[in-house]
Amino acid sequence: MPSKLFVSAQEVAEKAGVSRSAVSRTFTPGASVSADTRRRVLEAAEALGYHVNHLARGLMRNESGIVCLIVSDVATPYRSALLRELTIQLQNAGKVAMFVNTDRSDGSVDRALQQAIRYRADASIILSGLPDKSITQLCLRSGQRLVLINRDDDQPGPLKINLDDYESGGRIATAFVRAGCKRLAFANSEAGTPSLMGRERGFIAAATKLGLEVVVERYGSTGYEAGRVLAQRMLTRAERPDGVFCATDLLACGFMDAARHQFGLSIPDQLCVAGFDDIEQASWSSFNLTTFAQPVMAIATRAVKWLATGGHEDEPEEAHSVRLKAELIWRGSIRKG
Amino acid sequence: MPSKLFVSAQEVAEKAGVSRSAVSRTFTPGASVSADTRRRVLEAAEALGYHVNHLARGLMRNESGIVCLIVSDVATPYRSALLRELTIQLQNAGKVAMFVNTDRSDGSVDRALQQAIRYRADASIILSGLPDKSITQLCLRSGQRLVLINRDDDQPGPLKINLDDYESGGRIATAFVRAGCKRLAFANSEAGTPSLMGRERGFIAAATKLGLEVVVERYGSTGYEAGRVLAQRMLTRAERPDGVFCATDLLACGFMDAARHQFGLSIPDQLCVAGFDDIEQASWSSFNLTTFAQPVMAIATRAVKWLATGGHEDEPEEAHSVRLKAELIWRGSIRKG
DNA sequence: TTGTAAGCGTTATCAG
DNA sequence: CTGATAACGCTTACAA
């Protein structure tokens, strides 16, 4: 049973010999307090260990300072990197991150958003899954801002941040061709998210235009294990591919490990591989993977800036959709053309 | 400017034709409401999109439902795995996680705890750094519970969860000896945290008892790059070590990569390696690393259970300190003895 | 610049 | 079981 032990503005006021409003004003950035009272309040607060109750402040101001991050697969390199950058930038903007993990449950994004509403979060940033339209509407109606990262949704209102997945697929296809690859393949997960499918379509389209067919295989999640399985399926084909674009770096890591340790293939000599995300492991010398870098910092910057400034419905809808470029990081898993 | 758009209990009460207290009771688990009013309230709430304001509820109940997680290096495999497990279990316990990243600042753990106090968090879980004693006292005095994970601190009050680092060091030393290693080494970071140093001391003590000396090298952080540097330093020695215990898996990954790709060594034939944490990458076939598993789930379980149940100062101090066992995961980076 | 007083949306107490 | 009423800790007109 928690007992009410936190010290209140009232107590500080008494100790400092001023009114409670004086205390409040001292802790409100743009308020008018004389230097003298300010000092006395600050001293009393320090002595008592007073800290403004943001629950109460949020209640009054109708602005909690909370931003809710809705994420699944947090333990994944790309996700945790994005999470890290978002929290840092949110903190710099004076916000505090609330964190909802949607790993183990269904319809969980909706539940997460309800959590955000209950705590009167100023905004929610969705990194995984897609909320039901009705919930989105409720959020917007309640004055809560919404950011969708890599979640192609067509509802107006939320800020949507996406990458040039389709174009990236095209760019890497030409790189493979330039490296002399003849039999291209795309290793995808079964998740079927717009980003993943965008990479696939862009890759196929460009390859076709260059006169090459693409073998596509889809299996499981976007993780390492799925990459191994995909390698087993693809590398036992009669016509073994010699240039494989994996939808994510984790897939690529699994794929490369299987290709090398189970099939004895040499990369990039016998097999060229590319990934997407540029997770830390991609730069490890065991992988040395050519890949596309998620512009993690730029994503976070855009999201936070939009939250800090207006970011309201009265803006033109174009301002609500951002497409960032994934930079091709050239390493050693594709032969130099 | 956020306008007050969230729907309140008042509005629900009017729509349902009952008092606001009836609404409140409907959403308070153990309160007495007739089935009929309950239904009408629920209908009205659903129609209006009402959700209890937890800011206000927390204010009244003096219990916010918020637990603050204080972390640095979130993007690191072990940390993100622990974070994942903690958030899941907190959610299952009906709590919500607030997240403070202490990456880029100094004295930041103290600031993080102040943030926790401002939002009247019911508890804080500290995964990185160590708070100043005065802040710890303030938290405790304010009725906020504190959990320290792997942060050997001697202050009474907080729950302290640690591993058997010293014993683990000993266990792996004997494993190296059994594998026929003659020249042992310990690769550590300069961080010097108690867990890291515990592993080091336990390893040295056991090796000494077994009649072997241990070369110790410390450099940088606990990450991959530091592992590479450590390998460069240790493997160029006249007496090249043939059994290396790395303080963390990330160090081990960097170490192995350098050993193989720069020094052309074969693992485990010419060099045995062990790590600590059992991050996902340790199981990848490129590393296949023998290591100690952090009991992530057990850690989270203990922490959350302690928060849920009393966990107060009136308990005996022994109940505030937990030591869990790190399980040795046997893979292929040490020869079978 | 300061204090007084009226809320913010809840829940807990207490009659009915 | 239900409905007033008083907190909770804060901010913000408004008046002094």
The Cα radius of gyration of chain A reads: 25 Å
How many strands of chain A? 12
Secondary-structure element order of chain A, as H and E? HHHHEHEHEHEEHEHEHEHEEHEE
- Give the overall silhouette of chain A: elongated
Strand content of chain A: 15-25%
What oligomeric state do these chains adopt? homodimer
Write down the overall mean pLDDT of chain A: 93
The CATH topology of the largest domain in chain A? Rossmann fold
What number of domains of chain A?
3
> Main sheet of chain A, how many strands, which sense, barrel?
6 strands, parallel
CATH homologous superfamily classification of the largest domain in chain A: Response regulator
Structural category of chain A is alpha/beta
What is the CA–CA distance across the termini of chain A? 69 Å
- Identify the most extensive interface between protein chains: A-B, 64 and 64 residues
Residue runs with pLDDT of under 50 for 5 or more positions of chain A: none
Biggest β-sheet: strands ordered side by side in the sheet of chain A = 2-1-3-4-5-11
Total DSSP helices of chain A = 12
Task: Explain what the structure shows.
2 copies of one chain form a homodimer. The first copy, chain A, has 337 residues and is an alpha/beta fold. Chain A is 42% helix and 17% strand. The first copy, chain A, has 12 helices and 12 strands. In chain A, strand 1, helix 5 and strand 2 form a beta-alpha-beta unit. In chain A, helix 1 crosses helix 2, helix 5 packs parallel to helix 12 and helix 10 crosses helix 11. The radius of gyration of chain A is 25 Å and the shape is elongated. The first copy, chain A, binds a DNA duplex (16 and 16 nucleotides) through helix 2 and helix 4.
